[in-house]
């Protein structure tokens, strides 16, 4: 999951604006094989999520869809990007409410997710180092 926020440069105040309404961003994510797993248009700030079934390095590209605004801003655009991976992307209070889980059931779900993430990481390390 990724959260991003953009800020345009303001020539007059010589600082970045707190927000950039009207600016659009295209987010594209490719897996290690170059296959596109996400390609979508968003606003000046937003959240995107994707699930990859391929271990390895992924490419995340953010493209501004408005060159006019960038030129107006003197060509400067600041992008804040926060990426979360694995079980850290799960919203457990939301899961508990939706599935009507007790606290114990929710904790068990969290532990199972953590074990699954450890297995994925071990598999990734095996692939990366060539050990089978």
Distance between the termini: 29 Å
Main sheet: strands, sense, barrel: 4 strands, antiparallel
What would you call the structural class?
alpha+beta
Unreliable spans: none
Helical residues, percent? 25-40%
Approximately what portion of the residues adopt beta-strand conformation? 25-35%
- Mass-distribution shape: extended
Quantity of strands, as a count? 7
Describe the structure.
The protein has 132 residues and is an alpha+beta fold. The protein has a domain at 2-85. It is 31% helix and 31% strand. It has helices at 67-72, 92-99, 103-129, and strands at residues 2-10, 15-16, 25-30, 36-42, 45-48, 59-64, 77-83. Strands 1, 2, 5 and 7 form a four-stranded antiparallel beta sheet that branches. A three-stranded antiparallel beta sheet has the order 4-3-6, with no helix packed on it. Strand 1 (2-10) and strand 2 (15-16) form a beta hairpin. The radius of gyration is 19 Å and the shape is extended. 7% of the residues are buried. The mean pLDDT is 80. Keywords: Endoplasmic reticulum, Membrane, Signal, Transmembrane, Transmembrane helix. Residues 1-85 form the GOLD domain. This is TMED4 protein.
């Amino acid at each position: 999951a990724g959260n991003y926020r953009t800020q345009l440069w303001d020539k007059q105040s010589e600082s970045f604006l707190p927000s950039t309404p009207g600016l659009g961003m295209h987010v594209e994510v490719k897996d290690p094989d170059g296959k596109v797993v996400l390609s979508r248009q968003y606003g000046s700030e937003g959240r995107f999520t994707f699930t990859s079934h391929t271990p390895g390095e992924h490419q995340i590209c953010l493209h501004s869809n408005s060159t006019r605004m960038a030129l107006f801003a003197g060509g400067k655009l600041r992008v804040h990007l926060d990426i979360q991976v694995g079980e850290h992307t799960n919203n457990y209070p939301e899961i508990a409410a939706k599935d009507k889980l007790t606290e114990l059931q929710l904790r068990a779900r969290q532990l199972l997710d953590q074990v699954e993430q450890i297995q994925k990481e071990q598999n990734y390390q095996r692939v990366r180092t060539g050990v089978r």
